[in-house]
Design brief:
Blueprint lengths: L14 H11 L4 H25 L8 H6 L2
Length: 70
């Protein structure tokens, strides 16, 4: 069974990507940068899943359709 919580990882990453992400995210450390980037990936998946669930339902209204006929 996999261990939960904080674990030490040894990975090879592109320093330029870490530096760019650190600047964009405004994070202080490389670890914080990677954690924040992973959080954003998970959040994006949650948003896309939510949009998929409501797509085509009455919950979403095309606000631009109202403008096109004007």
């Amino acid at each position: 069974m996999p261990k939960r919580g904080i674990v030490r990882k040894n990975v090879r990453l592109t320093q330029a990507k870490i530096d760019k992400a650190k600047k964009i995210l405004g994070t202080a450390t490389e670890t914080e940068t990677i954690e924040e980037a992973l959080d954003l990936v998970v959040f994006r998946k949650e948003v896309l899943d939510g949009l998929s669930r409501i797509a085509g339902t009455a919950s979403v209204r095309d606000v631009f359709a109202d403008v096109e006929g004007a």
